[in-house]
Automatic annotation (TrEMBL):
GO terms for molecular function: diaminopimelate epimerase activity. It catalyses: (2S,6S)-2,6-diaminopimelate = meso-2,6-diaminopimelate. One of its GO terms (cellular component) is cytosol. One of its GO terms (biological process) is lysine biosynthetic process via diaminopimelate. It is found in: Cytoplasm. The gene is dapF. Keywords: Amino-acid biosynthesis, Cytoplasm, Isomerase, Lysine biosynthesis. The keyword Amino-acid biosynthesis applies. The record marks 170, 219 as: Could be important to modulate the pK values of the two catalytic cysteine residues. Signal peptide: none annotated. Belongs to the diaminopimelate epimerase family. This is Diaminopimelate epimerase. Catalyzes the stereoinversion of LL-2,6-diaminopimelate (L,L-DAP) to meso-diaminopimelate (meso-DAP), a precursor of L-lysine and an essential component of the bacterial peptidoglycan.
Length: 289
């Protein structure tokens, strides 16, 4: 089977995008297909697979599969790329429209250079802060309190974390130097920690000033990636909660792949603005499961 695809990236966070309006795939083969296309040696190479599909509750729908085949709830960079792809292909014709993800429906607005989408702003909705909504367990259960600068034992090292859900779970560690962040040692240990029954995305943040932070991430199901849009949103929310940056102002988040502009506005919603880029198009020769 030859599957047409588009490879896109948001700040280096690359996925293989399949137009589900034109290509039908069986549910059972999606996890294996995600693993196959993501493989840099025997596939195309990416952080995972995203399907763009018709929606009954929004203008367009997306499904996200990590490179290990697991299905994700949300993806900020993926939302921006789906917005670009849907507009560029003519499935939506207005500049403001809604996208359905597994975590819910969000609003997107595209900015054009000529006839093509260059930047996308996404209203990521309200963050969830209660422990049970992350979800994050304690020895006594899940609870409804917020997790802000809470002691967190990793091996024999006692660190501190703040937890935020942006439709998918995130915990944030603060470091003095992003170049020295223990992403390789702490990331894989924490992402599957039993305190997180659904796994967790692990972020490391260095605060530069009240309007800029440095950011690196170990993503649940994918490992180190160049960028994570929902993680950048969670990092800004966390930085407000820890009094490092102010509410209702734009914060520049410096990721390995580039910059996002994030603000947690007074309505409680988190706004994310950044680029979406098409890399290449082609056909993937799929042998099936």
């Amino acid at each position: 089977m030859n599957i047409p695809y588009t490879k896109m990236h948001g700040l280096g966070n690359s996925y293989i995008y399949i137009d589900g309006y034109q290509t039908n795939l069986s549910e059972s083969e999606l996890p294996k297909l995600a693993q196959a296309v993501s493989n840099v040696n025997t596939g195309i190479g990416s952080d995972g697979l995203i399907l763009m599909l018709p929606s009954q509750v929004a203008d367009v729908r997306m499904r996200i599969f990590n490179k290990d085949g697991s299905e994700a709830m949300n993806c900020g960079n993926g939302l921006r790329c789906v917005a670009k792809l849907a507009y560029d292909l003519g499935y939506v014709t207005k500049k403001q429209f809604k996208i359905e993800a597994k975590s819910g429906v969000v609003e997107a607005e595209v900015e054009l250079v000529g006839d093509a989408v260059n930047q996308v702003t996404v209203d990521m909705g309200k963050p969830e802060l209660n422990r049970s909504k992350i979800p994050m367990l304690t020895l006594s259960g899940d609870g409804d309190e917020k997790v802000i600068n809470e002691p967190f034992l990793v091996g024999e090292e006692n660190l501190h974390v703040t937890a935020v859900s942006m439709g998918n779970p995130h915990i944030i560690f603060y470091v003095d130097d992003i170049g020295e962040a223990p992403i390789h040692s702490v990331g894989p240990k924490v992402t599957n920690d039993p305190r997180f029954p659904e796994g967790v995305n692990v972020e490391f943040v260095e605060v530069l000033n009240q309007k800029e932070i440095n950011f690196r991430v170990w993503e649940r199901g994918s490992g180190i990636t160049q960028a994570c849009g929902t993680g950048a949103c969670a990092a800004v929310v966390s930085s407000v909660l820890n009094n490092f940056v102010e509410r209702n102002q734009e914060v520049i988040v410096h990721l390995d792949g580039g910059d996002l502009i994030i603000s947690w506005v007074h309505s409680g919603h988190v706004m994310m603005k950044g680029p979406a880029v098409t890399i290449t198009k082609g056909e993937f020769y799929w042998q099936g499961v």
